[in-house]
Amino acid sequence: MTPASEEKETGRTEAFSDGVFAIAITLLVLELKVPHLSGAVTAGSLARALADQWPSYTSFVISFFTILIMWVNHHAMFGLIRRINLPFLYANGFLLLVVTFIPYPTAVLATYLETPAAPVAGAFFAGTYVLLGVAYNLLWHAAIRGKGLLRRDVTPEIVDACTRRFRLGPPLYLVATAASFVSVFLAVGICAALAIFWAFTGRLI
User: Fold this and answer.
1) Which of 50, 95, 109, 156 could form a disulfide with 125 if both were Cys (CB 3.0 to 4.6 A apart)?
2) What is the DSSP secondary-structure string of 8-30?
3) How far is residue 147's CA from residue 132's CA, in Å, rounded to a whole number?
4) Can you tell me the distance from the alpha carbon of 115 to that of 106, in angstroms, rounded to the nearest whole number?
5) Taking Cα atoms as reference points, which of 89, 96, 90, 91 lies closest to residue 71?
6) Which is nearest to 189 in space by CA: 171, 203, 175?
7) What pLDDT does 5 receive?
8) pLDDT in tens, 86-114
């Protein structure tokens, strides 16, 4: 396979993935609903109705930046890859499946955050990120196990550092999932903190 064909093959996969990420991040905003006021419509009643939607804003912001950071890390991972194979394509497809699912648990969390069902909604939300962490690990392992998929200048030290970093995802999100039954706000806070962590460590890939 020539370098030109390798670049084209990887480019198509990246372009397809970028489109999926873009759709998923756009769908999040559809969960923000315009409030419908009953009775007299005043500036105060609209302001209160907008303020009451804070669970939707919170889940939207966390999920938006999480998907954005996932895209950045996905892009950085592809920077280490020069060609792809069939197992890698399926692993990438599984990752995109989870990414496109994220707007749904986001909507569930926003809907039930202030209800007695909040622990389950929080666990469902954080549990989705457990799957996301698993998907990233599968994708990375497909990259390092495939013959000749990584760039020739990728050292074993870089591979080990990335492997250790990706391994952190599933257990930490499992902690967030369990924490939801103690406090849903703790679970959401852990997910937000992990998003910040991935943002600051993405450059290490």
Assistant:
1) 109
2) HHHHHHHHHHHHHHHHHHHHGGG
3) 25
4) 15
5) 96
6) 175
7) 43
8) 999 999 999 999 999 998 998 898 889 88
- Residues 65 and 52: their CA atoms lie apart, in Å, by 22
Q: CA 162 to CA 19: how far, in whole Å?
A: 25
Distance CA 138, CA 105 (A): 22
Question: Which amino acid type is present at position 41?
Answer: V
DSSP string, 70-128: HHHHHHHHHTTBS---HHHHHHHHHHHHHHHHTHHHHHHHHHHTTSTTHHHHHHHHHHH
Give residue 55's identity as a one-letter amino acid code.
Answer: P
Residue whose tokens read 């966390």: 62
Residue 126 to residue 135: CA distance in whole angstroms = 14
**What is the number of residues in the chain?**
205
At 147, list the tokens: 């013959």
